[in-house]
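Customer ticket, subject: "Can you confirm the structure for Cell division protein ZapB?"

Message body: Hello, I'm evaluating your service for our small team and ran a test protein. I'd like someone to confirm that this is what the system normally returns, since I don't have a reference to compare against.
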Amino acid sequence: MSQELFNQLEQKITAAVDALEMMKLENEELREENSRLKEDRDEWERRLNGLLSKFDEVDTSSAP
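Agent reply: Thanks for trying us out. I re-ran your input and got the following:
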């Protein structure tokens, strides 16, 4: 294998490894964001259920 081809291969491998490392970092960031969004959704769901239960209480108390 010529030195030129070896250098090209080395550059491509280095670029691929760098890209994988960046993807791993991005993946971790996305996992953290997903976790935060799930927590937000759970909080909104809890609050919505609380409001719906208040409506149920009003319906029950005003029933004849």
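A couple of notes from the result: The first helix runs from residue 3 to 62. Residues 16 and 45 are 42 Å apart (CA to CA). Feel free to reply with more questions.
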